[in-house]
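Notes from hallway chat w/ T.B., transcribed later so I don't forget. T.B. wanted the structure written out for a chain they're using in a teaching module, and asked if we could keep both sequence and structure tokens in one place. Agreed to drop them here.
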Amino acid sequence: MFILERQEETTMFKFKKCLIAAAVAASFAVTSFANAADTLTMKMGFVDPATSSYALGGKKFAEELDKLTDGKLKVQVIAGGTLGGEREMYEGAQMGTMDIITIVNTVLSQFIPELTILDQLFLFDNEAQAHAAVDGKLGELIAKKAEAQGVHIIGALESGFRDTFSKNPIKSLDDFKGVKIRTMENKMQIAAFNALGAIATPMPATEQYTALQQGTIDACENAVGNMLINRYYEVINNVTNTHHQFTYIFVGVSDRTWKKIPDELKPKVYEAMKTAVAWQRQNLKEINDNAKAELLKKGVKFYDIDREALKAKAVPELQKLASNVPQEWVDAYKEAVASAK
């Protein structure tokens, strides 16, 4: 999956997009509750295709919720951005025109500034630490903040760690010097790669294959599975296990829909999502493991790197950008990391 990335938009353009997204979402929401009195059917939106690990996780959630509530609560997964982009879906949930939405943390931080803490690179050394963050107190703080905005966060699927793909091998910090690397249009990524000595080159995800092919950039970064899916191995064949950023796909229910769920069934919603999250985490791991095996067959080379050296260069710059994050959030992150070492 590519994390949703947007260029700056004019206020009027944003307003028009919001109206369009709201109209589309409303047309779906009208049918959400046109069922028997004892059955509630909810629409769940994804920007990713139906075959993605995230949408499959949504389907697992739907199956579990149907089973746990004896068919009283049903979920229809609608993938491929049919219900709008992640920002539009979240705004729709706030307005009550959406049922269940999914949104990556780098977009959610535009609504919850404190979440910038998770936008930083080199936060986690392993999946256990990343899971502990959203499964613990930090996750509770995020949920509380979103609830005040009219969205009930019920869990976090994941996109996992991102690595560096390059034309020339990158085996050490020095190898980053002068490398033109495509980044998201995100201040954290830009600052981090510039600090490593690379030349951060932000551009839309859809342009990076051609940019690599034409030599406009020398490298890019993403989850390993995406190197196979998007055929980057055709133009670059080196992967460095930088594991520089971990990303999440938060799942939220609009307050309007949440109030329609009987109180006795609300715990079942959390239970079903917990099962789906565990399933999707394993599914994503299998996808990435299989992708690595396939890439090795295609001649792609994988390299480890001294991540501590990278962190020493990048983290001070990132901390400057996240200096306004409340101490309570910082402490919650530190507790999570310490608990999963």
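Follow-up for T.B.: The two ends are 28 Å apart (CA to CA). Might be a good example for the class.
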